[in-house]
Amino acid sequence: MDVYNKRILLTGATGGIGEQIAKELAFKGAKLVLVARDIQKLEQLMSALESPYHHEIISCDLANDESIRLMDCKLKTLIKTWNEGIDIVINNAGHNQFQLLSRKNTGQIYSELSLNLTGPILVSKYAINGWLNQPGLILNIGSTFGGIGYPGYAVYGAAKSGLYRFTEALNREMHGSNIKVHYLAPRATKTRLNSQQVNDLNSELGNHVDTPDYVAGQVLKMIHTEREYCWLGWPEKLFVRVNQILPGLVSKSIQKQLPTIYRYMTTSGTK
Ligand SMILES: NC(=O)c1ccc[n+]([C@@H]2O[C@H](COP(=O)([O-])OP(=O)(O)OC[C@H]3O[C@@H](n4cnc5c(N)ncnc54)[C@H](OP(=O)(O)O)[C@@H]3O)[C@@H](O)[C@H]2O)c1
């Protein structure tokens, strides 16, 4: 899909990856609705974009059902004003806390599940029922950890793998309509999502870390080519495949890393 002149709702727009996606989309002539919680950061981002007057901002807590319902109301009002709907939804907002499950409190568990899984599901439902054009595209941003269960990311992995299956099921459910649902899974990327402990762990394990502008470029490419699924990075995308067929092999390789992972996890504070 060509993004020129398309209306695109982008969640997590002020984050490391979101900001780069917003800049590239605006540069290519898309009209954006930027979503995050911090209104000041949204305003700053909007004014820094190409053609700021083409864009809108909405403050929304995507881990909160009522806040998402209010966003749906605002979008319906905007759509009446524009007299046109939204063409693309990018469910990009996400968060994780690298920690043993036994050390997480119930609130943290629910908040990770809500933001990374329930939020995109609700946004997709409101979009389909109310304001997504046909042809329309929903692009869900997942993670390598949605394809490989990894220590320290049990809840995040559960949410992102759930998001993957949700994408697959909804895409099949919508077959015959003109709405497509796709999934892009970045590997480690240099943003503030990752604590210093996680950056140090990646560096000690020799894990490659992508730049946000690389990931944003892949997002644009995926929209352009309408590719359904994309796992970023070698060898991560290979491990995701191997994990489906021979999970024991991947477990053995992760077991070797466990002492290092535990060392960084025990010093990891809450974000
Ligand atoms: N960075 C990585 O290593 C990595 C790897 C694989 C996948 N990903 C995925 O890529 C996506 C973008 O991540 P990122 O690295 O760019 O993260 P980031 O830099 O931490 O940005 C997170 C964005 O989400 C927004 N956000 C956080 N909590 C929210 C909430 N409750 N409601 C609404 N918005 C909320 C933040 O804005 P406010 O705080 O103002 O709300 C911010 O705009 C996520 O889905 C993440 O899971 C990242």
- Compute the number of structural domains: 1
SS element count, helices = 9
Structural class: alpha/beta
CATH topology, by name, is Rossmann fold
**Could you give the order of strands across the largest sheet?**
3-2-1-4-5-6-7
User: What distance lies between the first and last C-alpha atoms, to the nearest angstrom?
Assistant: 37 Å
Helix content: 40-55%
Bound molecules: NADP nicotinamide-adenine-dinucleotide phosphate
Most strands sheet: 7 strands, parallel
User: What is the N-to-C order of secondary-structure elements (H for helix, E for strand)?
Assistant: EHEHEHEHEHEHHEHH
CATH domain class: Alpha Beta
Global geometry: globular
Keywords:
271 residues; alpha/beta; Rossmann fold; 9 helices; globular; binds NADP nicotinamide-adenine-dinucleotide phosphate; 15% strand; 7-stranded parallel β-sheet
Would you give an account of this structure?
This protein has a 7-stranded parallel β-sheet, with helices on both faces. The radius of gyration is 18 Å and the shape is globular. Helix 1 packs across helix 7 and helix 8 crosses helix 9. With about 270 residues, the chain is of the alpha/beta class. It is built from 9 helices and 7 strands, in the order E-H-E-H-E-H-E-H-E-H-E-H-H-E-H-H. It has one domain (about 5-265): 3-Layer(aba) Sandwich (Rossmann fold). The chain has helices spanning about 15-25, 40-50, 65-80, 105-130, 155-175, 195-205, 210-225, 235-245, 245-265, and strands at about 5-10, 30-35, 55-60, 85-90, 130-140, 180-185, 230. The mean pLDDT is about 95. Helices cover about 50% and strands about 15% of the residues. NADP nicotinamide-adenine-dinucleotide phosphate binds near residues 16, 92, 143, 186 and 188.
